[in-house]
Amino acid sequence: MKKVGYVGVVGLPNAGKSTLVNELIGEKVSIISSKAQTTRQKVLGILTQDKTQMIFIDAPGFIRAKEGLNQFLQKEWEGVLKEADVLLGVLNLDAKSESLLDEVLTTLSNFKKEKFIFINKMDLLKAERLFLIEQKLRDHNLEYLFGSATKMRTELKEQLFDELKSRLPDSEQFFYEPELYTNQSLREMCEELIRESAFVRVGQEVPYQLAVKIRSFKEETGLTQIHADLIVTHSRYKKIFVGSGGEKIKKIGKRIVY
């Protein structure tokens, strides 16, 4: 018998969910940026070891909204809460307020599912915040580990893997082929990598509503040519991405990192 299931990774925007998923899987399946709500929709990352397969659903940051893009993002993380077999809550020590962390904890506690908590960004050394979070976790009867997703030690990864594994349901077979680490197509991954490059190159000027659409994707011997459109909500943003003499748009294309 195998241990197989979906692990929903949930937390506030910029909690470090995508970084944590990438670290656990050992591959880049979700883009990373300091800008809130970089993860636009659910991303599946797959980790298969021996008789265990965890399918991580990296959800957009926890948010409540009634309209627009934020409402779409809200529905995305609500869907993760419902679909997952196990919930992995990521609580970041640099959250803007304790009340936001409380809301995440309350939401997780209300779901009658297996769950575990990872307290992230321990490198910030916020001892008082850590003490308060630990007390609230005990109040909610939630088990946890703490560390830094950007500096994950091997033993911490193994501990977290074991905690999640013990909470997965039994299965007679894997859901995905063992060699797969994501269900995203190559085009989808390229669109996200271009969006990540735009966030890094342009910085805080970038509206997070930015979207990328691949127009052509040609694979040739030793070279892959990709043509893509950057789509923004207002014409005034065009010059931010193009830059003087097309300088910014060239840098965006050159900086794509996988």
Q: Could you characterize the architecture of this molecule?
A:
This protein has 258 residues and is α/β, with parallel strands linked by helices. It has helices spanning 17-25, 68-83, 98-110, 127-139, 154-165, 186-202, 238-242, 247-254, and strands at residues 2-11, 43-49, 52-58, 86-92, 114-120, 144-146, 170-171, 211-220, 223-231. The strands form 2 sheets. Strands 1, 2, 3, 4, 5, 6 and 7 form a 7-stranded mixed β-sheet that branches. Helix 3 packs parallel to helix 4 and helix 6 crosses helix 8 (247-254).
Could you give the distance between the termini?
35 Å
Percent of residues in β-strands: 15-25%
Order of helices and strands: EHEEHEHEHEHEHEEHH
Alpha-carbon Rg, integer: 19 Å
Tell me the overall shape: globular
Uncertain runs are: none
Number of strands: 9
Helix content: 25-40%
Helix count equals 8
List its traits:
258 residues, alpha/beta, 7-stranded mixed sheet, two-stranded antiparallel ribbon, 8 helices, 9 strands, globular
